[in-house]
């Protein structure tokens, strides 16, 4: 059986063959068994908000056109989408709440211990922004800042403090629409209330409420999470590491961290360097301890500690099937309940750690932030015990891994662009204005078995690079590019158009910038804010030659992210099409009418080339509106008369990317900028 119709990653294809041979079911097998899926649900036309149903609307007009209560297709689709936004906003924002609780504990009020403020510069900057007074005492500043951040979740009146970072013109748009976020929890509850039976019956009004809840996440919960994590664990800096299943080590104890919260994973990394625990591993016959990650926990310890990344969302089962993982420790979000069944095919122990997430059959070791090192030690001890039971004959690790550079942020990127003494976004703005860089596109999101794993991410990114577009990535999308070699500086010479290549060569950055986990999409918003503040390519977010894309969207969080991007004035391509096709009213509002209100809009499509062409056309349209210089190069030829409006031509990516030796994992950039 050929597995290239399941994943674009050769390591994944190799392990899928192993799964077939040992009879293990993976997410792809379960997905195939569900076919054909409900056509009504696929269009968003099933309603389950009350118990008179579930009701479903016939899209062909021959059956029922309203539910039992009288809700039509447009209201049902809007309700379903709104509830997805509420769940996504709750997930990301609750992550922020957990991190703030740890920050409060650092101040010594008894809620937490074992952590410290590793980035006092960021703490002081945030204290000034939030109006926290103090004599410079770090513990006092941390305590008061945490209290004020916590208050944002239960606030009843806005605006949210982080939302004030948005340009004034964007905030004016929100005020006019009535979608300025007031409090994080309030907006989520308000949206769930609006979508309850017998409340909001106007689908467009419901979509505006969904945007307000999404903004409360993007400019609230997620932004707070990123800020608090930077204070606690340090601001990331460009760092070298590796990605893909080949980072697992046959002769070491392998511990995989999976989920989204770095409060435990940071301690696991620290514990893995403890001489006593290393000695225990050697006594068990191992050569050491190897911590690697899956999903966004991987991104967190990658960009701060340089720890290797084993894979993205659809790799979580495959990693277990290699037989090399001794313990997989999980917290929250994007964790498959199937892990215990898959792990049973090998010796691997699955350990759940969150009070919010249990898996039947897994060992539950609830994480207590007051004793984080104790939890880390207990997990490593379990991994060492499991290593002693590992059957070497059943270990089959794919020899696929790729070098990468990660850890770019809105705060350190100016130093890489302009140097320590000329830090700023001016070099990037000048490159855009002069036509060397067409624009900047954020490619974010998940994996889904509905699409060949990583295929859409890689096709879109390669197409954009070829047309001189600088790409920034987060989450599983960034991991996809990391596995394929796109996060190396050398990728500029291999894949980038001549203008983008000139810029990357001049400052030594990759053409694709890894900016963190999925909550770190807030960093992308901050980069856009900085570009507006610097001036020259737009006076508000909606004027910038920027766009966003979620090429393999899977979760409700992806819907929320897309919604706050559009509400922030950003054109956003979303693939596969979410469940909105059953309502022309919902689609027309989100793909057309909303642009007049927020400055942004969605493109819903299942065609990745259509998405690529539309993104490039959008960037060219913004350039034309700003009267920027024509693109300096077109089709690889220098030209002062290049047509600004020319859209993306088909691009066939080169094959045979090779690892060019970007250095050892955990090796940090020698030009690390000062933390701010």
Plain-language structure description:
This protein has 676 residues and is α/β, with parallel strands linked by helices. The protein has four domains: 16-71, no CATH class; 75-233, Substrate Binding Domain Of Dnak, Chain:A, Domain 2 (Up-down Bundle), CATH 1.20.1270.30; 245-394, Rossmann fold (3-Layer(aba) Sandwich); 421-638, Rossmann fold (3-Layer(aba) Sandwich). 45% of the residues lie in helices and 10% in strands. It is built from 25 helices and 18 strands. A hairpin with a 2-residue loop joins strand 17 (633-634) and strand 18 (637-638). The relative contact order is 0.13. Residues 639-676 have low confidence and may be disordered.
Give the C-level CATH assignment of the largest domain. Answer: Alpha Beta
Number of strands: 18
**Strand-residue proportion:** 5-15%
Average pLDDT level: 91
Which structural class do the helices and strands define? alpha/beta
CATH topology of the largest domain: Rossmann fold
Domain count: the total is 4
Short description:
It contains 25 helices and 18 strands.
Give the key terms:
676 residues, alpha/beta, Substrate Binding Domain Of Dnak, Chain:A, Domain 2, Rossmann fold, 4 domains, 6-stranded parallel beta sheet, 25 helices, 18 strands, 45% helix, disordered C terminus
């Amino acid at each position: 059986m050929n597995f290239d119709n399941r994943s674009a990653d050769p390591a994944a294809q190799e392990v899928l063959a192993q799964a077939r041979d040992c009879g293990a079911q993976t997410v792809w097998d379960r997905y195939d068994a569900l076919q054909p899926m409900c056509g009504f649900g696929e269009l968003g036309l099933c309603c389950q908000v009350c118990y008179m149903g579930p009701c479903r609307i016939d899209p062909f007009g021959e059956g029922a056109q309203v539910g039992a209560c009288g809700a039509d297709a447009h209201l049902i689709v809007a309700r379903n989408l709104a509830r997805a936004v509420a769940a996504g906003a709750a997930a990301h924002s609750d992550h922020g709440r957990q991190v703030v609780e740890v920050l409060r504990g650092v101040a010594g009020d008894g809620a937490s211990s074992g952590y410290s403020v590793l980035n006092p510069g960021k703490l002081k900057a945030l204290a000034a922004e939030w109006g926290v007074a103090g004599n410079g005492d770090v513990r006092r500043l941390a305590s008061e800042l945490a209290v004020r951040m916590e208050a944002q979740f239960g606030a009843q009146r806005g605006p949210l403090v982080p939302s004030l970072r948005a340009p004034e013109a964007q905030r004016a748009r929100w005020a006019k629409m009535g979608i300025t976020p007031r409090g994080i929890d309030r907006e989520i509850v308000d949206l769930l209330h609006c979508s309850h039976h017998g409340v909001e019956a106007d689908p467009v009004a419901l979509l505006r409420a969904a945007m307000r809840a999404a903004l409360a996440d993007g400019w609230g919960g997620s932004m707070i999470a990123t800020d608090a994590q930077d204070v606690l664990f340090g601001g990331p800096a460009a760092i070298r590491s590796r990605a893909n299943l080949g980072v697992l080590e046959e002769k070491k104890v392998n511990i995989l961290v999976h989920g989204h919260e770095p409060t435990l994973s940071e301690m696991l990394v620290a514990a893995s360097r403890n001489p006593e625990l290393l000695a225990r591993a050697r006594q068990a016959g191992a050569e050491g301890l190897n911590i690697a990650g899956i999903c966004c926990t991987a991104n967190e310890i990658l960009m701060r500690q340089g720890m290797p990344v084993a894979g993205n969302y659809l790799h979580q089962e495959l990693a277990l099937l290699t037989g090399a993982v001794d313990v997989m420790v999980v917290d929250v979000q994007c964790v498959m309940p199937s892990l215990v069944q898959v792990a049973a095919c090998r010796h691997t122990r699955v350990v759940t750690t969150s009070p919010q997430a249990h898996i039947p059959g897994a060992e539950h070791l609830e994480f207590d932030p007051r004793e984080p090192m104790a939890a880390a030690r207990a997990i490593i001890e379990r991994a060492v015990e499991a290593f002693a039971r590992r059957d070497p004959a059943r270990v089959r690790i794919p020899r696929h891994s790729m070098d990468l550079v990660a850890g770019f942020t809105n705060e350190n990127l100016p130093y890489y662009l302009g140097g320590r003494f000329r830090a700023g976004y001016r070099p990037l703005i000048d490159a855009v204005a002069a036509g060397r860089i067409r624009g900047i596109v954020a490619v974010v999101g998940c994996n889904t078995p509905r699409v060949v794993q990583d295929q859409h991410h890689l096709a879109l990114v390669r197409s954009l690079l070829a047309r001189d577009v600088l790409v920034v990535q987060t989450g599983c999308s960034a991991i996809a590019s990391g596995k394929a070699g796109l996060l190396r500086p050398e990728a500029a010479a291999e894949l980038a158009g001549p203008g983008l290549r000139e810029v990357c060569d001049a400052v030594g950055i990759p053409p694709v910038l890894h900016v963190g986990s999925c909550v770190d999409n807030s960093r992308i918003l901050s980069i856009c804010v900085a570009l507006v503040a610097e001036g020259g390519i737009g006076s508000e977010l909606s004027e910038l030659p920027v766009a966003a894309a979620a090429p393999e969207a899977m979760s409700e969080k992806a819907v929320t992210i897309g919604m706050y991007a559009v509400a922030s004035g950003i054109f956003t391509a979303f693939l596969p099409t979410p469940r909105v096709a059953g309502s022309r009213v919902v689609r027309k509002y989100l793909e057309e009418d909303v642009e007049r209100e927020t400055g942004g809009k969605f493109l819903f499509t299942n065609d990745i080339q259509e998405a690529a062409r539309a993104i490039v056309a959008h960037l060219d349209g913004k350039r034309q509106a700003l009267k920027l210089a024509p693109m300096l190069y077109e089709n690889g030829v220098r030209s002062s008369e290049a047509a600004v409006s020319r859209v993306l031509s088909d691009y066939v990516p080169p094959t045979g990317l090779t690892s060019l030796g970007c250095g050892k994992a955990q090796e940090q950039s020698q030009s690390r900028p000062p933390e701010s």
